[in-house]
User: What shape does this take?
Amino acid sequence: MNTTIIFTVTTDLSYDQRMIRICTSLANAGYDVLLVGRKLNASIPLTTQPFKQKRINCLFEKGKLFYAEYNIRLFFYLLFKKMDCIGAIDLDTILPCYFISRIKKTKRVYDAHELFCEMKEIVTRPGIYKIWKKIEGFTAPKFPHGYTVNQPIANEFKKMYGVDYAVIRNIALLKEIFPVEKKEKFILYQGAVNEGRSFETLIPAFKNINSKLIICGDGNFMLQAKQLVEDNNLQDKVIFKGKIKPDELTAITQQAYIGITLFDDKGLSNYYSLANRFFDYLHAGIPQLCVNYPVYADINSKLPIALLVDDISATNLAAQLNNLITNEVLYHELQQNCLKLRQTLNWQQEEIKLIQFYKNIFG
Assistant: This one.
């Protein structure tokens, strides 16, 4: 009988490329994997994967009531499932995973994609921050097995809770790409449309950029982002595509001319971030405008694939994007570096570390 691993998320499984990659790798390595997420009113049908999937229905879709309801429903669902290991993906499902692992005496793993409590939407709300920090302080030290996306975040967990977490980066799968005719030089933002992603300055910047901004994703800043477009009369230049299925998103990314990876400096999570989109642009072979924070700067220092910025004001973003659009020598250099670096920075390499991590846990 195969070893069973159950992972828990609060995301809609259809769009969670990170978990699709992780679960596929472990399933292909011989583990019996189940990914548990939530079902939204707008959820599309699940596609067949090499691992099992389960969506939990909730009455609430956001806010405190959602988190409370989902965690309770998740706990009782897990209570009747057989497992050898339970994996909490980020802090928002960690409580039921901890209690289930204690009740069933199973192994438990914490996959910390970010410093959850240090995200802008958490750290700028003292009451919310206090609640999540208590949850983290109670659970994280009790998860000796874990991994995160870069060494600075692993160092923070060691400093805060004395746990030694592995580093497994969420890099795109290396696939063959073919030259794509770029009919227009549009700029792409893909990923969560959340607080702290610099939309307050990025969107107004397009008043002075001769290009369109395509936004693929959804999140807690969507209403504000759309209002910014309206306030700046940019309805013809900033296009919201909503959530896009992974295969379709890959095609759109390859057609883009420039990618965007920006964060403001409100919260340590942003400063130490390593966004999925950073690697998605790399693997599509497109240069990007990226914030000059430590992990991005470290990767870019080895082989420049991005134009890094310290100043995320609308004026500077417009100037830097216009430079990347018009400076063909710089663009070509970054583009060629992307095609080189993707050969060594890819999921096939990270997958080796992931599989070894679970081999070590199960002996």
